[in-house]
Design a protein that fits this description.
Strand order of the largest sheet of chain B: 6-7-8-3-9-10-12-11
Number of domains of chain B: 1
Number of domains of chain A: 1
Strand content of chain B: 15-25%
CATH superfamily of chain B: P-loop containing nucleotide triphosphate hydrolases
Shape of chain A: globular
CATH architecture of chain B: 3-Layer(aba) Sandwich
Radius of gyration of chain A: 21 Å
Structural class of chain B: alpha/beta
Strand content of chain A: 15-25%
Largest sheet of chain B: 8 strands, mixed
Number of strands of chain A: 12
Largest interface: A-B, 43 and 47 residues
CATH topology of chain B: Rossmann fold
CATH class of chain A: Alpha Beta
CATH architecture of chain A: 3-Layer(aba) Sandwich
Radius of gyration of chain B: 21 Å
Helix content of chain B: 25-40%
CATH topology of chain A: Rossmann fold
Shape of chain B: globular
Structural class of chain A: alpha/beta
CATH superfamily of chain A: P-loop containing nucleotide triphosphate hydrolases
Distance between the termini of chain B: 38 Å
Order of helices and strands of chain A: EEEHEEHEHHHHEHEHEEHHHEE
Oligomer: heterodimer
Number of strands of chain B: 12
Number of helices of chain B: 12
Number of helices of chain A: 11
Chain lengths: ~325, ~325
């Protein structure tokens, strides 16, 4: 299958049972991702971005739908096959310190990723650790340090080195820069971008920082209460947002004004995201939407193309 | 001059087993009555430590080595803990970043809003209850009677930040200190909270100092901005001068580090390196190790703040030299 994308997610849903109630975390989400491409996921906390990223790697089992990675339905893999496939699918977390073993040196943690996958001899692994440290911009001495001895930016570089140690094809980046200082964020974005080019990595880039998503992504999906409300190329979606929620998200970016007179009026979005235990009937966004009409609370809008490759789920889009 | 604050030559250090960290190294600034001042900096810049030290809330390993903090006719740094307790929460309100640490999970919202009024003996319980309900409504919570009886875990992050604001405002302070009040919130919610804070501060004519790492927040809300690095003030400017003519290499680097759609396809210009822990008092400009303009003078001589224009100062040798070249 020459046209098979690296990752194909079909109508995937994920629900959590909490004390007898059902939390709708992800609802019938579909997308495709090609090698070397970046898909950005945006939305407020609770929109389902992180859950979707984990379902795509089968770190969480989907309740419905299929995740097809390199042509294989990953739900059908045996645990041994899954472990082999995991080599190609890695994740970088927001909090690198929490994701690293505090009693393992940085070098050992990076090597551990290779040991789990049975990659190389000991000497080869050690050599590769040094190469990785250098590539992510850490001194070789960092290999002997413990994670807590490093700064936040350095810890995230370790998280990246560990994810890349097994030469993956897909990396889910779950808010990888949110905990970092602004001046360090840019360094990490630059690094991720360069590594993508060198290794032809596909990224699922999850962030609430729309500026960064726009910078890094080829395509972007906007999630609200676990549903995709809009998707398109980063260019189209940000230049010509079709869904009212996307527009609100873009308007919520506080840019540096030209002068004090240009300050944002700060209207913001009224209210907060409804409970994912009982999502609204009709369009999930209608209780907060300025454009909502009777139809929106009765009829769920279907995802439809408003332009080539640009889809939105709003009765009034286009 | 209600709510005005004047900080002079503040030095704060931390005792650690490995040595002494020089967290704040000679910070001076003023906040005029009714002004909204932003203190902008990254982690380790000393911005939060500065504000905590003024309130006597710094961690146990920290100590104020030197400095004055004039609030009204008193020096906050010379007050006994007991006197300071009567200032904190009553004359100076505080809002913190952490949504979990600011409220007691076991106590109902209403009791937490009433607590400062009762503790400072401003009124009796029925009156405190009436005021607390009015405060909950003022910070934008619908149905205050219901919120009054709820526990923090029943509220969203944005609602909890509103409750903490109500607690901070309970005794009608003249000065509000807000440390990263919206950092833990989604931008859509952060905007609501900033809007609420700005409206309330305007209406009450409250002086506000907001500590933030977010340039967008600082420039859209504050009247004046102080940029800190390495425990020192690098630049101070009113917001118009800040957005149009920010001059210090660090401030300019921060502004260029903001990534947005205009950047697609262009290489980013990160500030190289990272801030280092100051195990010694700085001998020169703390930003020099990361500054592309630095020369050897920057390493050995601490730059003073020089006036660049009305209400605009920066501490940079190279700027000073540039100006004298022109002059």
């Amino acid at each position: 299958m020459p046209d098979e994308p690296l990752l194909r997610v079909e109508e995937v849903s994920k629900h959590f049972k909490v004390r007898g109630r059902t939390l709708h975390a992800v609802e019938r989400v579909s997308f495709e991702l090609d090698a070397g491409q970046t898909l950005g996921l945006v939305g407020e906390s609770g929109s389902g971005k992180s859950t979707l990223g984990r379902v795509a790697l089968r770190l969480l089992e989907a309740d419905a739908g299929r995740v097809v990675f390199q042509g294989r339905d990953i739900a059908k893999l045996s645990s041994k096959e899954l472990r082999q496939e995991r080599r190609h699918m890695q994740i970088i977390f927001q909090d690198p310190l929490a994701s690293l073993n505090s009693r393992m040196t940085v070098g050992a943690a990076i090597e551990d990723a290779m040991i789990i996958q049975g990659v190389g001899t000991r000497a080869e692994r050690r050599k590769h650790v040094d190469e990785l440290l250098e590539r992510v911009g850490l001194p070789l001495s960092a290999g002997n340090a413990f994670p807590f001895e490093l700064s936040g930016g350095q810890q995230q570089r370790v998280g990246i080195a560990r994810a890349l140690a097994v030469k993956p094809k897909l990396v889910v980046c779950d808010e990888p820069i949110s905990a970092l200082d602004v001046s360090i964020q840019v360094q990490i974005i630059d690094l991720l971008k360069d590594l993508q080019k060198e290794m032809n990595l596909a990224y699922i880039f999850i962030s609430h920082n729309l500026g960064v998503v726009q910078y890094l992504s080829d395509r972007v999906m906007v999630l609200y209460l676990g549903e995709v409300v809009e998707q398109g190329t980063a260019q189209d979606l940000f230049a010509d947002p079709q869904h009212p929620y996307t527009r609100v998200l873009i308007d919520s970016i506080l840019k540096i004004p030209e002068s004090s007179a240009e300050r944002r009026p700060m209207t913001g979005l009224p209210g907060e995201m409804p409970s994912p235990f009982s999502p609204p009937v009709g369009c999930p966004f209608h209780p907060r939407c300025a454009l909502a009409q009777d139809r929106c609370s009765a009829e769920k809008p279907q995802m439809r193309a408003v332009a080539d490759g640009h889809l939105a789920a709003c009765h009034f889009a286009g | 001059m209600s709510g005005a604050l004047q900080v002079k030559n503040l030095h704060v250090r931390f005792r650690r087993p490995e040595g002494v960290i020089h967290a704040v190294n000679g910070v001076s600034f003023e906040v005029a009555s009714g002004e909204w001042l932003g203190i902008l900096g990254e982690s380790g810049s000393g911005k939060s430590v500065t504000m905590l030290a003024l309130l006597g809330l710094q961690s146990e390993s920290a100590f104020v080595a030197q400095g004055e903090a004039l609030f009204g006719d008193r020096d906050l740094l010379k007050l006994s803990e007991r006197k300071l307790q009567s200032v904190r929460g009553r004359e100076i309100g505080m809002i913190f970043q952490s949504l979990s640490a600011g409220l007691n999970p076991y106590i109902r919202i209403g009791d937490q809003v009433m607590e400062p009024m009762l503790q400072h003996a401003l009124c009796r319980k029925p009156e405190a209850r009436r005021r607390a309900l009015a405060l909950l409504s003022e910070v934008g919570l619908a149905d205050p009677e219901t919120q009054f009886r709820r526990y923090p875990f029943e509220l969203s992050g944005g609602m909890r930040q509103r409750v903490m604001t109500a607690v901070a405002l309970a005794c009608q302070p003249q000065l509000l200190i807000a440390d990263e009040p919206t950092t833990a919130l989604d931008t859509t919610i952060a905007i609501q909270v900033l809007r609420m804070l700005r409206d309330i501060c305007e209406k009450r004519q409250m002086t506000t100092v907001m500590v933030t790492h977010d340039l967008g927040v600082a420039t859209n809300v504050c009247d004046r901005i102080i940029v800190m690095y390495g425990g020192m003030v690098m630049e101070t400017a009113d917001v118009d001068a800040f957005v149009a003519r920010a001059a210090h290499p660090y401030t300019r680097g921060l502004k260029e580090a903001l990534v947005d759609h205009r950047d697609r396809g262009r290489p980013l210009r990160p500030i190289p390196g990272a801030a280092e822990t100051l195990w010694e008092a700085p001998r020169g400009c703390p930003f020099a190790p990361r500054c592309s303009l630095a020369d050897e003078r920057c390493d050995r001589e601490i730059p003073n703040l020089i006036a660049l224009g009305e209400g605009h100062e920066a501490a940079c040798h190279r700027l000073e030299e540039g100006m004298s070249d022109v002059g």
